[in-house]
Write a structure and sequence with these properties.
Length: 283
């Protein structure tokens, strides 16, 4: 996977919608262009969204993503292309399941996902959306455009303390997405990884960066990611060098759209050692 040669003017995709445009290599394999070169690894939400988009191309028409479970195997490199290989597992009367591997010079992601033919049924949600000011009138919260593209965020007041990464924020995709419900589902999974609920956990200031190990999302209701949605995250546990947090995504009227769970490395000793190395190098 080192034979891609882009022009000096080709900076890759600039929006989530462009990220979801894949090149087909075979009936069950797809190709993604490199993104803007940067020092940080590929954004995990990008890899997940593109893997789901590849899987969605292989399912019967009318089936929509309802859940996904991903393992991040090693960091992806932004200056390298990625091949997404889809393994069709089952196509039942209502459900289709797929497995996807993302590969650069080695596998960087393994993902399982399930699609359903929608139907009506009882509609109930237990959690209520937190009482927060709406996004209108709030200042923009700066995001890294090289990793998060046209994702836009605004930060409501939050009475609970957090360190470095907000655990509650309004988010939306700025550039229009297609009306395809799987494109919209991919965008929801993209933004589900934008922050971490471990920013509220004790000792997070000692742990440093928090590389993700795995990530799961359940989509309960159709979402329109070009509209504002509230991402609300909470830590569950930190132990044995790992931390787990959960999150919910609501639309502006308080409807629960999705639930997520993610596990990350959480090792304060590694953070301390990393800061000591940086300090020694700069002295």
């Amino acid at each position: 996977m080192t034979d891609w040669a882009g022009s000096a003017e080709d900076n890759g995709p600039t929006s989530v919608a462009q990220l979801l445009t894949l090149t087909q290599l075979s009936p069950n394999a797809y190709f993604t262009e490199p993104v803007r070169t940067g020092r940080r690894p590929l954004f995990g939400g990008q890899l997940v969204a593109q893997a789901i988009r590849a899987a969605a191309h292989t399912v019967p028409e009318g089936r929509v993503l309802h859940s996904m479970h991903a393992y991040f195997l090693r960091p992806g490199q932004p200056h390298q292309p990625t091949v997404l290989r889809v393994q069709p597992d089952t196509d039942g009367r209502r459900y289709s399941t797929r497995r996807v591997t993302a590969t650069q010079t080695a596998e960087i992601l393994q993902l399982s996902c399930s699609f359903v033919r929608p139907k009506s049924g009882p509609d109930y949600q237990a959690p209520a959306m937190p009482t927060v000011p709406g996004p209108e009138g709030l200042p923009d919260y700066p995001l890294d455009p090289d990793r998060l593209f046209d994702l836009e965020a605004r930060l409501p007041e939050d009475p609970r303390p957090w360190y470095r990464w907000p655990a509650r924020l309004w988010v939306r995709v700025r550039e229009p997405l297609t009306a395809d419900p799987n494109d919209r589902a991919c965008a929801v999974t993209f933004l589900s990884d934008v922050c971490t609920g471990l920013s509220r956990a004790p000792h997070v200031e000692e742990a440093g960066l928090l590389p993700s190990l795995d990530h799961s999302v359940w989509l309960h209701r159709p979402a329109h990611p070009n509209d504002w949605m509230l991402l609300d995250l909470d830590p569950i546990s930190t132990a044995a060098g790992r931390g787990v947090y959960t999150g919910r995504i609501f639309n502006a009227d308080g409807t629960l759209l999705a639930t997520l769970v993610q596990e990350s490395l959480f090792d304060p000793s590694r953070g301390k050692a990393r800061r000591a190395d940086v300090s020694a190098q700069s002295s």
